[in-house]
Design brief:
heterodimer; A: 337 residues; alpha+beta; BirA Bifunctional Protein, domain 2; 3-stranded antiparallel β-sheet; elongated; B: alpha+beta; Phenylalanyl-tRNA Synthetase, Chain B, domain 1; Phenylalanyl-tRNA Synthetase, Chain B, domain 3; 5 domains; 5-stranded mixed β-sheet; 20 helices; 31% helix; binds zinc ion
């Protein structure tokens, strides 16, 4: 066995030792009279003139390293034992720190991916006008989502316009675009409301993250590229993303994006309905009528928008099986994340 | 929308197997939610987006399959497309042409109503319907085929004519399933000369339904305003395969074809029947549109380079008619595609058939934004950090609460915003404060034996004229400032505890100058609750929650302390940037003063008495001890104040310090009648 090998094996064995006795055995094995190193050193005389100093030097260095490793480990054992006066295995004296709600964390984590790409964060009000929530977004007057089955309305009106609890974060598109000219790269995390009876997968209040990028010459292929990047940043590099055509009144062309199932890695499981894919967000190129409503000249800009449900993403990512847990705020739930 | 693989093959030659077809359809926008094998066939269950009523028919799906897989339409589909002409019709009166733009009625005599033939029964059952009789099954079959809902009446039960009109308020009809529905004036009805015989587009009446004894039929092929049908289904809580399609809009132009096809099918199962009269009222032409499509723009918007010939091939395969112009196409939209109205709609069609997955991902170039981050978010972030360090857990509670609870906790209902259509009384008003929600969290946790709690929430609250951001935190039970069980430094939570938390938040936001006034909110305990102010601006309310309030929340056994910070006011005075202050090079000396004062003297008076002396060499004044009770006369309290002396000019001598210290004592004695121990 050569000296380098002796060193490697000794290092490994010393690291694995858990008692003082074991360390003593190792000391004898590597540094004792019968150890291989001793044999090498005592056999130096048999070597040639050229070899002698090289081998001697290496063997001595090796001996020193092993010696110091052993000493270090022995003294570490002594500190940990009662000899030093402190039982260091007692719990540390520390303050219990609070924790952010998991929904806040996920909202922030999602937003942060886009913030790193150059997006800024804007929050809009939760009480919205009918115009911002629907009309401005090209949702026709007779659209079912405007009905009281799908949107909470507020008794009080403002300037004769009906007020409502926003049913999505998209009205912030209207607010931002009406006040600002492109280039715009904005993410909107926030609460939204829909009159769904509460059960394990429905809640009348939930969170969304909306995002939009508006400039000259933004393309559908850009939308795909950016959301793919988001999926990889947020869910991990092994994640695949696919885009399916879909329908939203405020985008054209529109898409729904699926990610490969994060539970079964796409092989198919009960969470993804054996499909291997999980629907994760809606997106599309901003509809020309939306630009018209905010007063942009026809054809001057293009852009895309996307939106995703935060509870669903949190449930998938953390394996939470009931949406009500988020809003019960049981301390045992809050402490976990 | 359900259909089967074999059934679809009647209209289109499919080049791929069922699994592959399901994938192709899903990836083109017709999501196949489930694919089930049943005997020698496969059942597809698809989700049709609301913009594509044409896909609620097998013919529509066949058209899509052709475009996607390059198969060809079979002749049987062409056969369906032969028209039926009107002839000396049955009398129909349509009162409102907007509500019912087209109505066809066909009289069929001498039908033989009976069980359906095996092939028909099999298909009807495969798509999840119940086989009723040959006539009803055919109306369903035909509906599935072309997407046109059909209703068959027993002609002999009809009184003379058909009238399409709105219901008289309170008018009633007994529908096929036996239920009697009371209608309002916005419900459209199909009536005969005497009575309503069907709720238009939704369900037929019991009286005129087709039964075994039925000899003669009146078949209805109609088109109704989607809005009217949608409202009625919601209002009545009643829907059907017909109403599902009418709500989304049916193609006006398909009516005569559907009629022809239905009659052919009826003849097939009832050989001796004959068509007597055909009535066709109303508009004959459906949706029409011509769109100019520029291939350059298409390629630019999608980020692709698709050739003109491919664009043209795709659009033609979808049944659109194209004419080549100089740099563009003129595209004629057929009546079954009312969703196509602008150029961008066609971009999507091309992209869809080309395949979204064939569009190569690109990376957008993101320029500097013209919007800015909201500074309020920064305030929230800093405050949150502070609370997390203090051991508070963040909660997120519902923004809606019960009006009764809000009132019980002292929030005037004149100020609160109410929902017009709450889901329940438990969630009918918008929260006027974050505290009710947090108290509810306290209640729920105590009920689950989590008695020691420190929680906070940041969120918006609502009242009549505005929506504002707040931050609230509550604490109850023991505050384990150290979790180590051996060095258990446990302290009961208290108002001063929360004050400390609040002070840390304020100080992290650069707010130092805070005054306290008594608070008279119903939610809080009088004498132990305060309004924190900076000049005239209210920054927060803090204190012990009133017993009655806790009782109404069913919290009985422990005190709860709460603080709510008005972030909009805080935002206005927060100073997030503080400059560097040079510090002294000389040593300090600490001297204590132990004094007795009357109970009415508050700590702040002691501090200001010292500060008013303007002694420059005082670096810090701290409360070192505070005691009452034993060894202290009644009506008095004892305090120890530590004063840290340091000069930034020189090292202070004993006599420097003695003179300052004596001055302080003298001032405390004269101004506050303090005595020293
Ligand atoms: Zn899975």
């Amino acid at each position: 066995m050569d000296i380098t090998n002796i060193k490697i094996i000794a290092e490994k064995e010393i690291a694995q030792a858990v008692t003082l006795e074991e360390l003593e055995t190792l000391r004898i094995k590597y540094l004792g009279k019968k150890s291989q190193l001793s044999k090498v050193l005592s056999g130096l005389g048999k070597l040639s003139q050229q070899e002698r100093p090289l081998v001697g030097k290496a063997a001595n260095e090796c001996k020193i390293i092993i010696q110091s490793l052993l000493e270090e480990k022995v003294s570490a054992f002594k500190i940990n034992s009662a000899e030093s006066g402190v039982d260091i295995t007692l719990p540390g004296i520390r303050k219990e720190l609070g924790k952010e709600h998991i929904i806040s964390t996920v909202l922030k984590d999602i937003s942060d991916v886009f913030v790193k790409m150059g997006f800024c964060v804007v929050q809009g009000p939760e009480i919205e006008t009918e115009f911002n929530n629907f009309t401005g977004l090209n949702i026709p007057l007779d659209h079912p989502s405007r009905e009281s089955f799908d949107t909470f309305y507020i008794k009080t009106e403002k300037n004769r316009e009906r007020l409502l609890l926003r049913s999505h974060t998209s009205p912030v598109q209207i607010r931002v675009m009406r006040e600002n000219k492109p280039p715009l790269a904005v993410v909107v995390p926030g609460k939204v409301y829909r009159p769904d009876a509460v059960d394990a997968s429905h809640s009348f209040m939930f969170h969304q993250v909306e995002g939009f990028l508006v400039d000259k010459n933004i393309k559908f292929s850009d939308l795909k590229g950016m959301l793919q990047k988001f999926a990889v940043e947020f869910f991990g590099s092994q994640i695949k993303m696919r885009f399916r055509p879909h329908f939203f009144p405020f985008t054209e062309p529109s898409a729904e994006a699926d990610i490969s199932c994060i539970i079964c890695q796409g092989r198919g499981c009960s969470v993804c309905g054996r499909k291997g894919w999980l629907e994760i967000l809606g997106a599309g190129m901003i509809h020309p009528n939306v630009f018209k409503h905010v007063g942009y000249k026809q054809g001057a800009y293009s852009g895309f928008a996307f939106g995703m449900g935060v509870e669903r993403i949190a449930m998938l990512k953390y394996g939470i099986n009931d949406i009500r847990l988020f809003f019960e705020n049981d301390k045992r739930f809050l402490k976990q994340f | 929308m359900k259909f089967t693989y074999n059934w679809l093959k009647d209209y289109v030659s499919i080049k791929v197997g069922p699994e592959k077809l399901a994938e192709i359809l899903t990836m083109s926008g017709l999501e196949v939610k489930a694919l089930t094998k049943k005997a020698d066939d496969y059942i597809f269950d698809c989700e049709v987006t609301p913009n594509r009523p044409d896909l609620l028919s097998l013919v529509g799906i066949a058209r899509e399959v052709c475009a996607l897989t390059g198969g060809h339409i079979k002749t049987s589909l062409n056969k369906i497309k032969s028209n039926i002409k009107e002839k000396n019709g049955f009398q129909v009166l349509v009162k409102d042409k907007t509500a019912c733009p087209r109505y066809m009625a066909v009289v069929v005599k001498d039908v033989c109503v009976g069980g359906s033939p095996a092939w028909l029964k099999k298909r009807i059952e495969a798509i999840g319907l119940r086989s009723v009789n040959n006539i009803v099954d055919i109306t369903n079959y035909s509906l599935w085929e072309l997407g046109q809902p059909i209703h068959a009446f027993d002609l002999d039960k009809l009184n003379k004519q058909i009238i399409v009109r709105f219901a008289n308020p309170g008018e009633k009809i007994t529908i096929i399933d036996g239920k009697t529905m009371e209608l309002d004036a916005r419900t459209l009805l199909i009536c005969d000369n005497a009575n309503p015989v069907a709720i238009a587009g939704i369900m037929g009446g019991k009286e005129t339904e087709v039964k075994k004894e039925t000899k003669n039929l009146l078949l209805e092929f109609a088109c109704f305003d989607p809005k009217i049908i949608r409202r009625a289904t919601r209002n009545l809580g009643l829907s059907s395969d017909s109403s599902y399609r009418f709500e989304r809009g049916v193609d006006l132009e398909v009516l005569p074809f559907a009629a022809k096809r239905t009659l052919d099918l009826i003849k097939n199962v009832s050989k001796d029947c004959c068509v007597k009269q055909v009535t066709d009222l109303g508009t004959k032409t459906g949706y029409k549109k011509t769109i100019i499509l520029e291939p350059d723009k298409l390629n630019n918007v999608l980020g692709v380079s698709i050739t003109d010939s491919k664009i043209s091939r795709i659009l033609k395969s979808l049944g659109l008619k194209l004419a080549k112009l100089e740099n563009s196409f003129s595209v004629k939209i057929p009546s079954f595609r009312p969703d196509l109205s602008i150029e961008e709609d066609l971009f999507e069609e091309v992209a869809r058939i080309h395949g979204y997955s064939n569009i190569k991902n690109t990376q957008p170039y993101i320029k500097f934004n013209s919007v800015k981050d909201d500074p309020a978010e920064n305030i929230k972030r800093i405050a949150k950090q502070s609370l997390l360090r203090e051991g508070f857990f963040e909660a997120i509670t519902y923004s809606l609460l019960s009006a009764a609870l809000a009132e019980e906790l002292g929030f005037a209902n004149t100020e609160s915003l109410e929902l017009l259509n709450p889901l329940s009384q438990e969630a009918s008003v918008l929260r006027p404060s974050l505290l009710p929600g947090l108290l509810q969290v306290v209640k729920n946790n105590i009920a689950r034996q989590n008695k020691d709690l420190k929680i906070f929430e940041i969120g918006n609250i609502f009242n009549k004229d505005k929506e504002t951001a707040r931050l609230a935190f509550v604490a109850t039970g023991i505050d384990y400032s150290a979790v180590n069980s051996r060095v258990n430094v446990c302290v009961e939570t208290s108002t001063l505890h929360l004050k400390g938390v609040m002070e840390n938040i304020f100080s992290s936001l650069g707010i130092e100058d805070v005054e306290f006034l008594p608070c008279h909110e119903k939610l809080f305990h009088r004498g132990e609750s305060f309004i924190a102010k900076n000049k005239s601006t209210t920054l927060a309310i803090i204190g012990k929650v009133e017993k009655c309030a806790l009782e109404s929340m069913e919290i009985k056994s422990q005190d709860v302390f709460a603080c709510e910070i008005y972030l909009d006011s805080v935002k206005k005075i927060a100073k997030l940037l503080s400059g560097f202050k040079p510090y002294s090079q000389y040593p300090f000396v600490v001297r204590d003063i132990s004094l007795l004062v009357e109970d009415k003297v508050v700590f702040k008076q002691i501090i200001s008495t010292i500060k008013d002396l303007n002694i420059l060499s005082i670096e810090e004044i701290k409360l070192a001890d505070y005691y009452k009770g034993k060894h202290i006369p009644k009506g008095f309290k004892g305090l120890t104040v530590s004063i840290k002396y340091r000069s930034d000019q020189h090292t202070l001598t004993d006599s420097d310090i003695n003179s300052m210290h004596d001055n302080i004592k003298q001032a405390l004695k004269t101004k506050l009648e303090a005595t020293f121990r």
